[in-house]
């Protein structure tokens, strides 16, 4: 097993990886931008290296800086988390070329699955069900597109071959809208991904978004860890995930898992991956894409299958084989995850960033909160809105929903807005209670209610005001207005975890790793 791992990420996923590493006796190295100098993942690491200014293009996305940080600190492996460089084949290969293990799939598998057209061809050869479609069409070849569209049938989707994150996708209801959709999708794809190639795909609606967690080792073993329901989405972005799915029977689960295993084997996959499917109301499922990394929603799988997926990632990257199972895994209980974002659901989910004055974290049986939040953290403007993931487990789905409502009510974040009120309203919706949802349900059927007269945001603001008043009364206005006081506070925190505080570079070590 590795002695030292660099985590090429930030926020709650960096903390998540650090915790498993500590349990396994592995030292961790954090990288951070100047905007994240005071972040929790920096404090919790055994060593931390500043890699540049706040914008990700100047820090977290610079491969050379991360490779250099790994070399300087003697890290034997790099865990990419999710987002940033986690699905960048060039980064995966750069780690290997530098003699550093990459805790993820090989670059060849990333390339095969990263291109949607290439992935569709592999799935077709592997016998994995595909949505009817047409591959690799030039965005200017309208004649070919029309012939293929007539064969597939309307409505259909025009999608970017190199797309992701919901970009480069257009819905076409009839032949009249095909040309405009092709040009728009091709232009967006060229701008976002440098590749204007598109493909056509039958529009499956209503559809559920069902995904299967797979783990694959370097010895040819692949295991599937059941399905996750990810149909609650806004603008193609997941907001709530759960495991298992109310729409999946044991027989269907076995079929989904078999298809996911075949998908992983088709490209020589290794480490953690997620195979995503669309499923219609009759239980027919179709390959959507494969994410070559750990997913944001991985905790729900961990809770219902009793597994630490990060620990498995580390073991596989170190060359260890997966344990073989005599029978398919069966889920135990029910888990739900709500993504807690820095945004105001009462103002069309406008972003909310800035100083967090106070946090009350949910606790109690069956509650897990993976978060970057703490009292006094300054949420920067440079990154996505995810502040944390609130996950609950219970014996049944009904109990899990009740537990999530209680946990959401217990969560207090003063200083910025979060989407917790949205999640509470969602949990109360009768369609969610019965699991009668689809990928289009949230935007077509759900309306965010008006804030109650006793708006909890006002109560949270009063809490924050009280904290601020107590700080002033104590003679300190906090690091934002008292730089010297902030410096002493940071020094005291650093001393408590055994870290050096200096002007830059490597900000010290814990447990005798060394210094430079």
Mean pLDDT: 88
Q: Please count the helical segments.
A: 17
Q: How many runs of DSSP E, i.e. beta strands?
A: 24
CATH superfamily of the largest domain: ATP-grasp fold, B domain
The first-to-last residue Cα distance is: 25 Å
Which stretches are poorly predicted, pLDDT < 50 over at least 5 residues? 475-516
Model description:
This protein is α+β, with helices and mostly antiparallel strands and 516 residues long. It has three domains: 4-103, Rossmann fold (3-Layer(aba) Sandwich); 132-202, Dna Ligase, domain 1 (2-Layer Sandwich), CATH 3.30.1490; 208-445, ATP-grasp fold, B domain (D-amino Acid Aminotransferase, Chain A, domain 1), CATH 3.30.470.20. The chain has 17 helices and 24 strands. The strands form six sheets. The protein has an eight-stranded antiparallel sheet with strand order 14-13-10-11-12-15-22-20, sandwiched between helices. The longest helix is centred in the last third of the chain and has 18 residues, at 456-473. It is globular, with a radius of gyration of 23 Å. The model is unreliable at 475-516 (pLDDT under 50).
């Amino acid at each position: 097993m590795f002695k030292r791992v660099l985590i090429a990420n930030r926020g709650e996923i960096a903390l998540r990886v650090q915790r498993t590493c500590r349990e396994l006796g592995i030292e961790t190295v954090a990288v951070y931008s100047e905007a994240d100098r005071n972040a929790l993942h920096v404090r919790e690491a055994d060593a931390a290296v500043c890699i540049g200014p706040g914008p990700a293009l100047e820090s977290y996305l610079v491969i050379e800086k991360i490779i250099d940080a790994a070399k300087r600190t003697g890290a034997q492996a790099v865990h990419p988390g999710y987002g940033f460089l986690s699905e960048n084949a060039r980064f995966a290969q750069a780690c290997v070329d530098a003699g550093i293990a990459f805790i993820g799939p090989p670059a060849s598998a990333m390339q095969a699955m990263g291109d949607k057209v290439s992935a569709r061809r592999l799935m077709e050869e592997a016998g994995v069900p595909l949505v009817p479609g047409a591959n690799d069409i030039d965005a200017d070849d309208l004649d070919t597109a029309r012939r293929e569209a007539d064969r597939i049938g309307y409505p259909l989707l025009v999608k970017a071959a190199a797309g992701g994150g919901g970009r480069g996708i257009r819905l076409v209801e009839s032949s009249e809208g095909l040309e405009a959709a092709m040009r728009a999708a091709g232009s967006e794809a060229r701008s976002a991904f440098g590749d204007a190639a598109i493909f056509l795909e039958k529009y499956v609606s209503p559809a559920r978004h069902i995904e299967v967690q797979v783990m694959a080792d370097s010895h040819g073993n692949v295991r599937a860890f059941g399905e996750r329901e990810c149909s609650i989405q806004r603008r193609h972005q997941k907001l709530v995930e759960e495991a298992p799915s109310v729409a999946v029977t044991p027989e269907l689960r076995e079929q989904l898992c078999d298809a996911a295993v075949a998908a992983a084997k088709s490209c020589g996959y290794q480490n953690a991956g997620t195979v995503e499917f669309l499923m219609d109301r009759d239980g027919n499922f179709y390959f959507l894409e494969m994410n070559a990394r750990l997913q944001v929603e991985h905790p729900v799988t961990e809770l219902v299958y009793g597994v630490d997926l990060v620990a498995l990632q580390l073991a596989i990257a170190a060359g260890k084989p997966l344990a073989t199972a005599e029978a398919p895994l069966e889920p135990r209980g029910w888990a739900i995850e709500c993504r807690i974002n820095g945004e105001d659901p009462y103002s069309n989910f406008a972003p909310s960033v800035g100083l967090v004055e106070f946090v009350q974290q949910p606790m109690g049986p069956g509650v897990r909160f993976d978060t970057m939040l703490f009292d006094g953290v300054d949420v920067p403007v440079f990154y996505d809105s995810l502040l944390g993931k609130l996950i609950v487990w219970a014996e049944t789905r009904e109990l899990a929903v009740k537990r999530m409502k209680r946990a959401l009510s217990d969560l207090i974040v003063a200083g910025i807005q979060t989407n917790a009120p949205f999640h509470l309203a969602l949990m109360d919706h009768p369609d969610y209670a019965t699991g009668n949802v689809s990928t289009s349900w949230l935007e077509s059927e759900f309306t965010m209610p008006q804030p109650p007269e006793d708006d909890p945001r006002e109560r949270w603001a009063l809490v924050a005001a009280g904290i601020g008043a107590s700080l002033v009364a104590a003679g300190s206005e906090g690091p934002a207005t008292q730089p010297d006081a902030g410096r002493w506070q940071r020094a005291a925190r650093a001393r408590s975890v055994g870290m050096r505080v200096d002007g830059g570079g490597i900000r010290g070590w814990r447990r005798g790793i060394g210094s430079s």
